[in-house]
Here is the input.
Amino acid sequence: MPRTPLRRASQSSLFAVSASDPAPSGLSFMDAHISEFVDETELLQANVEGMKRLSESLSTFNESFASWLYVMNMNALTTDWPQAPTDASFALAKRRAEHETIAAMEAIQQAKAAAAAAREAEITKTMEQTEMDITYTGLTTTNASVPSNKSGVKKKPGKPKLTAKEKKERSIEIEKVISCLPLEFRGSDPNLRRNMEGVIEGLLNAPAQTVKLTDLISPPDLSQARVNKCLIALVNRKVVQKNSSTGTVLYHWQGI
Here is the structure.
């Protein structure tokens, strides 16, 4: 194991040093060794002072760090940091859950309403297309089988004469039916309301209150498209029953 080399004065006694270093007299041989000793003593003093400064620095740091820890401890003891939820937190969570539930229910209702509207629009479109096809076929067959008169217009039977009481009852019944129909038939479109009244009158005046679509057409007011639209609204409200079991589409009056 290597060792730190010692100075010459530390390797033997002073007598051996004085014998190996001839000197003129006395202790003059110790001058060089004492100067080395003085240098080493000064170096030792400098190292001890450095250790003292290091100790003072550590003491200052320890005091500051201990003060900081003390302040943090006092702050933790004097400051309130609630970790558990309070009653207000539970009330807020309950209100938030209620709002979310209401919003979800409204979204479901809107989706159902949109689906129902789309379904109703699709059914109406299909019924209109079917009515147009059947009407076109019926008109073609009728025109081919029934001879036309001189003016080219098919004569329809006149309206039966009603008493004042019957007219009043008829008006009340028509108003009751129209009040159950969509807004456009209740006065939003006056022409459409008038057309609906004409269609209902035609149904009530028909024999056995059963008609075909062509029986209600009366240009220019009651065109085929308007009669078809009015009949679809009446069928949807179940005021009129549609029957095609005989091969011909017939409309039977049911009433409210």
Observations:
- The first strand starts at residue 210 and ends at 211.
